[in-house]
User: Fold this.
Amino acid sequence: MSENIKSIFEDECKDLEIDTHLAKRISKYNNAFISKNSEHIEFFGSNLTGAHVVRFVGSDRDRWFDDVLEVNDGPLEERLHALPTVNADWNISSDTMNLSCAWLLHAIFISKKLTDAQKHEAMIDVVLVLQYKYLTSILFHWFRFPTDKATAEATYAQLTYKYGLKVHGSWMKLLKSRAEEIISKESIHYNCIRKMDVDDDVTYLLNDSQGRIRDIIKNIYVVFDRVHKQGLRISSTSSVVIEHDGAEILKDKTKSALTYSHYINSIVSDKNSFIRSELTSIIEKLVHTMPPNLFLESLQWMSNNYRQSGAGVVEEVLNITLIHALDYLSHNRELIKNSNDIAGLLGKLKGVYMSSRSTDVELYELRNKTEIIVKNATNNKNDSVISSVRTGILLYIVLRAMTMRHYSNI
Assistant:
């Protein structure tokens, strides 16, 4: 019987036990890589692209073969490259470490020494390691020198929810999601993982998984390049300032309620326009007791149900919130005097929205209607949680409306 990729690994790694000890070594390797230094820790937990230096180096490769597989990669490479199905000129599909990850997925899948749960966890770790290797190399190609964090933040802010990074919120969550897709029964690579009897399928698994990571970075780079050329920045300070070409643009705070109301109603049903992560993060910091996931769910519910049957409460809350906020401004003009920043206004409004002693009938109605949104969106019954999310929604409506000119110009 002629050799193939699987048979070579089975021979060279014949002393390797596919058991819990191996699974733990893979997990340890995985954790060591993402926590290698502060740059790695920050990158994998963040949603920024190009702002951190993350590298997969020779010592990382050596540790994989020495500490995880416990095998000499020299004879492996020599035999693998001798196969007619492995083209040494194809860097991705001929790389010994990449091929070892593909084989490990198969070996773990068929192991009789691991439970299904242990197999799943170990296979996820293997795919993550493979993706770290791909991702760091691709990042180095597109972002040879790290960009400043303000530009990286502005780039992320410009991404819509068609970008996986925007959907998942961090690189680690995105990579884990991709790993789940690759090993799932619905995956186009499932039969390769299950049998590994066709070398061309192994080549496809490696090239396809690398290509998808490459496309993710390539598409983000297009946005980054536009942001970089236009000079967009998101301030890294806690004061709520959004800058364009270095100029503060939040100067349209005294426009009529009608203008703001028309604007917010025109964008609310477009989730990508209505929900801006750089603005939600500001509100999350301001209302620190608010669960971010419930806050986001509530905003998404508003977008999905705007002007839907029985959900007229969304339009009412939008309009009443802006009328109330602008009325508050007209009676507290010192909040905007000599200031291009709405942080002070948001802080004051937070106190108003959370006050238990208010006798304002309009505010009482606004609170009740907003609570309806929170309850429908989250099914949460905890009064303090509902109150904090309610406050977050009201503040977000004000902030989103008053950043109208910024988002209309980009």
